[in-house]
Amino acid sequence: MHISEILSALGRANEHNARASISGALGAYVRKGEIFVRPKPNTFGLIELGHHESGDAPEEEPPANFGALEVP
């Protein structure tokens, strides 16, 4: 969830001080590896819901026949 959505859900104004405060608090949990992850800048997710850190997401592979030309 982007920080602006989090502030909206909390009923707080989307102002610099509020963004910095909430981002800092959530960032402390991210640095400890507890509860939250930061998959993208200014975006936070919950570890228990399977959100991933950038680069840690499972890679999706194309189907086995991807790019193959079908010959009639």
Report on the architecture of this protein:
The chain is an alpha+beta fold and 72 residues long. It has a domain at 3-49. Helices cover 35% and strands 12% of the residues. The chain contains two helices and two strands; from the N terminus they run H-H-E-E. The protein has helices spanning 3-10, 16-32, and strands at residues 36-40, 43-46. It has a two-stranded antiparallel ribbon with strand order 1-2. A hairpin with a 2-residue loop joins strand 1 and strand 2 (43-46). It is elongated. 3% of the residues are buried. The mean pLDDT is 84.
Could you name the key traits of this structure?
72 residues; alpha+beta; 2 helices
N-to-C CA distance: 47 Å
Rg from Cα: 18 Å
Task: Give the count of helical stretches.
Answer: 2
Helix content: 25-40%
Shape: elongated
Main-sheet strand order equals: 1-2
List the helices and strands and how they pair.
Blueprint lengths: L2 H8 L5 H17 L3 E5 L2 E4 L26
Antiparallel strand pairs: 1-2
What's this entry about, in short?
The chain has 72 residues and is α+β, with helices and mostly antiparallel strands. It has helices at 3-10, 16-32, and strands at 36-40, 43-46.
